[in-house]
NADPH:quinone reductase-like Zn-dependent oxidoreductase
Amino acid sequence: MAKTVRFHELGGPEVLKVEEVEIGEPGKGELRIRVDAIGLNRAEALFRAGFYFYQPTLPASGIGYEASGTVDAVGDGVDGFVPGDAVSTIPAFYMNEYATYGEQVIVPAAAAVRRQEGIDAVTSAAVWIAYTTAYGMLVEIGQIGAGDTVLITAASSSVGLAAIQIANHLGAIPIATTRTSDKKQQLLQAGAAHVIATEEEDLVTRVRALTGDGGVELAVDAIGGAGVHTVVSSVVRGGTLVLYGALDPSPMPLPFADDGRGRNIRWYYFAELTLDQPQQLRRAELFINAGLRSGSLSPVIDRTFDLDDVVEAHRYLESNAQVGKIVLTVRH
Amino acid sequence: MAKTVRFHELGGPEVLKVEEVEIGEPGKGELRIRVDAIGLNRAEALFRAGFYFYQPTLPASGIGYEASGTVDAVGDGVDGFVPGDAVSTIPAFYMNEYATYGEQVIVPAAAAVRRQEGIDAVTSAAVWIAYTTAYGMLVEIGQIGAGDTVLITAASSSVGLAAIQIANHLGAIPIATTRTSDKKQQLLQAGAAHVIATEEEDLVTRVRALTGDGGVELAVDAIGGAGVHTVVSSVVRGGTLVLYGALDPSPMPLPFADDGRGRNIRWYYFAELTLDQPQQLRRAELFINAGLRSGSLSPVIDRTFDLDDVVEAHRYLESNAQVGKIVLTVRH
């Protein structure tokens, strides 16, 4: 029996229950992992509430995409992992099939990566969604290079901070947005070249001033809603806006820039890379591990909670008070 | 004095008036053209009604992007043209600055191209908006190649027919849509590999069947509105939808495909190429002239009207009864 977070109805953080569940043995192509730490993501809050783009399988659903720990059993047909290996999970599955919030979890072996030497369990649990998402948007789709400017909205999220680091790693110029000045210093310390407080300054005017009137080559936006029009108007003609979230639930019209000229608009979901594109995923792993080794990529951890306090952790996740990742830790 | 079409108020076709206007001499960098034929475009109907993305300068506005004719005067600083040259215009200006509906018109020399040998005046007036728009979408943005499938909505428009021909020219497979079966045979004769009547068949089902379930690599859509969701769901994961019109005035939500995976969405306006990108325009000219010479590109002319019948011609333009281009002819 192992402590496992499950929910039996859709709703707020309070629907999450810590239950003792028999985990069993890993099947063909699966690993069982003794979990040390679990990274939290907004996708999980949406999934719990029934607002994610696929639905949990009730009456009892697990939850979670990210964990770090140690392999403790290996299913048939799995090459390359043995019990005792330190691993992290990448989000290469659906949460109604596999889940990571628990002391012991089973995941597909294809969703496990070896942990880098010298990176602790909490940090290892905070890497893979944020950095594969940011890598996919900035490198595979945006193809940004040195000297390009990148606008990053909701920049204090774990994906936003990963995007800032990847932009800097490549010699590009990250411009971060945040609603008020409260998080400005933290974002500058996290590597943003410029920070724009969108409730206090005009986004398009600031971006044009910073880019010599042209706009950014790439914008990555987690907010969506009616504000997309402003974001797209901050992009240079022919540049790209990648949308990867819809924190603002207001209707999102197809955004045309004021000048009548086109921009590329791309909806992005991390599983495009982690599930659909094995070669992209392999490149992402190499890129991210290289950055972790050199230290140029380094997840920002905002706060940790004990697994037993998962309800409180989800409340904090939805408060938008954090800068960086929230992680659950598991005491053994 | 020369017959010139002008309008003094926004409205339906009837606001267009044929008036005698003194044209004067071409200024610096301009040509004066004795016009033989004038290609009509939906952009002009929108401009006349006040629905285009820029407004006419009233109380008297000219209108028109395309004409073919003969240079009859050359302004200062113009190289490469002399009186007597047979030319056509490309839409490299705004209609509140220059216009082409008239017996004699002045345009920027940068908006003139030499007519190909053996191509008559009516055909020459029907080339440049349709083929530069289709070329920009299929070649410069879509980068389609042999074997790719391309979905072309509202395919009986002049741009739609040009897109069919360019797809065939490159060894790609054009799938045309039209509302009912009425124009099906004409579209097959015009080169469509497949025709889907969208009011009689399910677009996504047909496209998936034709493409082995994946969807098309590129869709070019002039319709927009709520139907964009269906068009985007006909595009393969990671493929591209280029929107170049909004014939359907219903709200156009940012379209996400049902599977949660991203597609590239691109608003396109022909002046991105003809006004903003001289190198793309040069490539477009070479590409289109090569196709005109070999005959693989050949504008479809639906019907011609006399310049005096411009009101009737605009009514017909807005009837959606045509397959291909409507052209005004000028008697001298």
User: Anything to note?
Assistant: Chain A has a mean pLDDT of 93. Chain A has two domains: 2-127+299-329, 130-271. The interface with chain B takes residues 53-54, 224, 228, 237-238, 243, 251-256, 260-269, 271-272, 276 of chain A (CB under 8 Å).
